[in-house]
Structures are given as C-alpha cells and as structure tokens.
C-alpha cells in the first residue's frame, strides 16, 4: 500500500501517536509512542525510560507476538475544531531485535527524537508496522 503524501506530511509533523495492540483474547492495550515513517512501514522503538518489565516483556511486545494486527492513531487537537485531523494506520507488526532494518530504524528514530541519543537504545527492540491500510479525517494540512 502506498501512504498518500498528505497523510505522510501530517504524520511527519506530529511527535506522538497511539499504538493499539490486542492479546490473543482480543483484550485491547493502547500506549503513546514516538514513531517514524519510512516507505510503508512505521517504526517504534522501546526507549530506556523506566519500565516495570524488561523491554521484551512489555505488554505491547507480548501482544504483538500473540496477535500481530495493530492500529496506530496520530491526531491533532485544536480548540478551533476546523483544525482537527487524524490519521489511522492498520497493519501487521513485527518485532525487530537486530539486523540492518533494526539498526536503520533506530538511526531514523534517533534523528527524529534527540532525546533518544543518550538512552543507548541500540539493543532495544523496534516495532515495525507494515502499513496495510490508512484512513484519515479532517484538516491534514501542515
């Protein structure tokens, strides 16, 4: 699938999205994430902020391993409701633990978020969502 240019630009100007996963019993789980889009894949890293579990045991990782179907929503809110807009992406997620794609994704994420530079995220997993469907609504101009 080819992500339309206006949706790609909208996503490039947002800093946070929300990743929705579900476990094998379809119990949903939604978390805010930092992301980068490259071609028709969206990459999300696990960062080094304190977590209650090791990175490979996080709920979002466990859910993806049990059920790779995910959704991501990135939205812009404004008190002027004519400026509201969102993009929803659906697809299949993979966990990248190492390799060229993993390393390239980490580099892209570090170039987008300077906060990641000091976190030593190179050994952390990356979630790669292969975009199968994109939907949008509202004012997407940047």
Mean pLDDT: 93
The CATH architecture category equals Roll
Main sheet attributes: strand count, strand direction, barrel closure: 7 strands, antiparallel
Strand content: 35-45%
Q: How many structural domains can be distinguished in the coordinates?
A: 1
Number of helices: 3
Biggest β-sheet: strands ordered side by side in the sheet? 2-1-5-6-7-4-3
Q: Give the helix level as a range of percent.
A: 10-25%
Helix/strand-derived category reads alpha+beta
Q: Would you identify the regions where 5 or more consecutive residues have pLDDT less than 50? A: none
Ends apart, CA distance between termini: 23 Å
Q: The CATH topology is what?
A: Pnp Oxidase, Chain A
CATH class reads: Mainly Beta
Question: What does the overall shape look like?
Answer: globular
Spatial extent as radius of gyration: 15 Å
**Total strands:** 7
Q: H/E series, N to C? A: HEEEEHEEHE
Query: What is the H level of CATH, i.e. the homologous superfamily?
Result: Electron Transport, Fmn-binding Protein, Chain A
